[in-house]
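Figure-free illustration: sequence to structure, shown twice.
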Amino acid sequence: SIAILLYLARKFKTPDHWYPSDLQKRARVDEYLSWQHVNIRGKGSKVFLTKVLLPLLTGQPLCPKKLEGATEELNIVLKQFEDKFLQDKPFIAGSEVSLADLVALVELMQPVGAGYDLFEKRPKLAEWRRRVEEAVGKQLFQEAHEGILNIQNL
């Protein structure tokens, strides 16, 4: 939950880059955290649900038209994410990783876990992912996403 992340950042006085004290940088983080609920989270989860969970839970085969529609919606918000939030910056709030980057990448790992490599034809997005992974630590990042990346093995 975003509220819990913000609480933890404040309570434990995390390094400033996670939730910047600079008002303009903080506004960028807050803007993304508000936008992502119905955009990245909503569309990424829809791809994941359509491709993995619904067939698993219902025992019915994947509906290609539903998946195509969900993928198209996700592609639209990914372009918006690149154009509006990443622009030509290394991270959403500027030159350092923040909670916004962490939340964004976590949400994007759901469709990746469903087998949709949304980074493949998006070099800007792929480079941003690499920077976020390095900032967090590649091993920790892989451990945190091990379950979602292996979901299709169920």
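We now fold a second protein in the same way, so the two outputs can be compared directly.
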Amino acid sequence: VSTGRKWFRLGNVVHAVQATQESIHATDLVPRVCLTLANVNRVLYFICDTVLWVRSVGLASGINKEKWRMWAARHYYYCLLLSLARDLYELSLQMEQAARDRARAEQSLSQEPHGYSVADEETEWLQSFLLLLFRSLKKQPPLLLDTVKNFCDLLNPLDQLGIYKFNPGIIGLGGLVSSIAGIVVVAYPQMKLRVR
């Protein structure tokens, strides 16, 4: 089973190389840079993982397992950070669009402004931000799924690299949520976040 899993990983290397070639042609600069670098790091992660597999099956004994494991975790971490940066960029674009739509709707209604208390003024920005965030994610379920998946996947390398130690249960829960998000994307291809 382990050997079969590693052969599937080689297929993932090919997929990551193809995704890199696709992301190079993205029209928007930020997704192009983030996705290209993320996919390059993903390829490097799979190469490190393959080297670890070669050592584990006894084909090469002189490989420093701990060093290669840390390199793999580091490349996976960079891949996820860059993917999250792309998600946040896409989310900011969606929120800007939602804010413009809201401003147009308020102008067309031409409502008279009403008085706010000091407490309202202090919390208004947070309420507006959360409302825009909710509306943006509601309009873009693929963006929500991709962001949740990348965030949940990030827990494991953060723990492995010692950046932040998590309870194994939290890492397991993150892995479960990430797997469910991945299954949804496979089952419903329209839920995959597209490269623009």
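Summary for the second example: Residues 15-102+139-191 form one domain.
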